[in-house]
Amino acid sequence: MASSGGLSLVRRAVEAVRRTPRWQKRLVFLTVGVGTVSYACQDNRVLQINEGSTGKKKVVILGTGWAGASFLRNIDTSLYDVHVVSPRNYFMFTPLLPSVTCGTVEPRSIVEPIRNIVRKRGGAFRFWEAECFKIDPTIKKIHCRARDGTNVDGNGEFVVDYDYLVVTVGAKSNTFNTPGVVENCHFLKEVEDAQKIRKSVMKCFEKASLPNLTEEERKKNVHFVVIGGGPTGVEFAAELHDFVNEDLAKLYPDVKKYVNISVIEAGEHILTMFDKRITHFAEDKFKREGIDLKTNFKVVKVSDKTITMTNPATGEIAVPYGLAVWSTGIGTRPIIMDFMKQVGQATRRVLATDEWLRVNGCDNVYALGDCATITQRKVMEDVDAIFRVADKDNSGTLSVKKIKHVLGDIYQRYPQVELYLKTNQMKGFHDLLKDKESEELNIEEFKKALAQVDSQVKMLPATAQVAAQEGAYLADCFNRMNTCEENPEGPLRIRGAGRHRFKPFRYRHLGQFAPLGGEQTAAQLPGDWVHVGHSTQWLWYSVYASKQFSWRTRMLVVTDWGRRFIFGRDSSSL
């Protein structure tokens, strides 16, 4: 009976399938097939992303900092498939981070979502909030990992292929392997860092306000230490001093007398990258306002209660503190260290690129911003080739007239030549050759004349200004790649035929600011223009407002400044 019942059930099922319309059968099979494929994809350990159906070259950008955002803002997305991989989905205006630590500016006022930057431009664009942990230039692929797992294992790993890779991952804070720094100090590289500092400052004041504390315990709680006398450290110390004296002193009158702000610098002076006049003004101003400036002190250890430092005069001392901010420079990220080993740059601290921002040792990979530096070609390395290019009649000698024919190309390819002439107050190249039109130089005399030129080769600073200019330059090169392939505009190839496709990157310094608190800012602009005072503070306001990436952030920042003038800074621990 059971057997006949089972056969009857099977017959009814077969008959039902026969009676089902053909389109419904196809729908069932399609649904089952898609489900099977979906399950199989979920079971994959690593997802391979290969989108090349548009026929356009794929440009992958790593990072959304100054260099990456500037490149993305200027690249023609109608010419390329643009893909961005970054742990954060926004661009951050880093010069205003110190202002966020004290509530002068709100965090969301200085960030611009990446999708907003390209939303109205059209073209192919993809963004993935993930971190690249490996670059494989041999097969043109990058390995990424999302913060939140997306597959069965929860590791969220995927692989992206590229035609061109633009590396703009920036750098991390350099601790110099000092014990206890990572565990006990705050950094100031991200918005989250600024928010943590803001909360910690208020926590220190609340601790110092508690009853039954000794005077020494109150002093310790509101002792704020800044390690590093660079622009970031100095600006944070100035912002904190204003916050304490203009706002917190009114709310914590009994704690104000215990507050101490210290700046520790390993060198002899702070702000060493600025003009000496600014350095001396800043040091005098800090001393007048009661900021404890400790120069020639090297921090050797940081515990949860004390900071240990050494000085040639005093030896090793330990001071208690309530909050410490570490701002002593930048270090190399692990992904860059691993990549440098692959391309034969293992002994370097940052990626080396040529003057066109191409990474030395691999093809179609570019590096911009703090993670890379340009290795300027030296004249003495190519002096023989330069001589041959200038000596068109192969006479074995050069005159000033011959050199003038290639002088523009020499200036473009080797900017240190022009810089050397300006530094030594020479009017032109002829001054370098003693200004004799009829004088003929052989190769040895030519080498002797150029022997000191390479002394003017300088590394570009790791600043937002450099990174932004590099991003805009590279985007312009990409936009005109086909045009310049047919009509090169760069200098003559000294070791080859023809010309380079593009002019090499040239950094144009537009000046720098150092806010010193009390509505006073130091400014150093091109032409040796140095000024410190209240008027420069308003120049700082206008420049930083104009440099915002959108009208939205521009209005938010200006509104925050206005709110602070009227109502003061917010002291809540949010």
Structure, briefly:
Helix content is 40%, strand content 20%. A hairpin with a 3-residue loop joins β15 and β16 (315-320).
Account of the protein in words:
- By secondary structure, the chain is an alpha/beta fold.
- 40% of the residues lie in helices and 20% in strands.
- The strands form seven sheets. Strands 1-8-7-6-3-2-9-20 form an eight-stranded mixed beta sheet. The chain has a four-stranded parallel beta sheet with strand order 13-12-11-17. It has a three-stranded antiparallel beta sheet with strand order 14-15-16, with no helix packed on it.
- Helix 3 runs parallel beside helix 18 and helix 14 crosses helix 15.
- The longest helix is centred in the first third of the chain and has 22 residues, at 22-43.
- It is globular.
- 33% of the residues are buried.
- Residues 1-7 and 23-44 have low confidence and may be disordered.
Principal-axis shape: globular
Largest β sheet strand count, sense and barrel closure: 8 strands, mixed
Number of helices: 21
User: What proportion of the residues form beta strands (DSSP E)?
Assistant: 15-25%
Spatial separation of the terminal alpha carbons: 75 Å
Helix content: 25-40%
Low-confidence parts, pLDDT < 50 over ≥5 residues?
A: 1-7, 23-44
DSSP, total strands: 24
Task: Give the strand line-up of the largest sheet.
Answer: 1-8-7-6-3-2-9-20
Radius of gyration: 30 Å
Assign the structural class, choosing from mainly alpha, mainly beta, alpha/beta, alpha+beta, or little secondary structure.
Answer: alpha/beta
The overall pLDDT, averaged over residues, is: 88
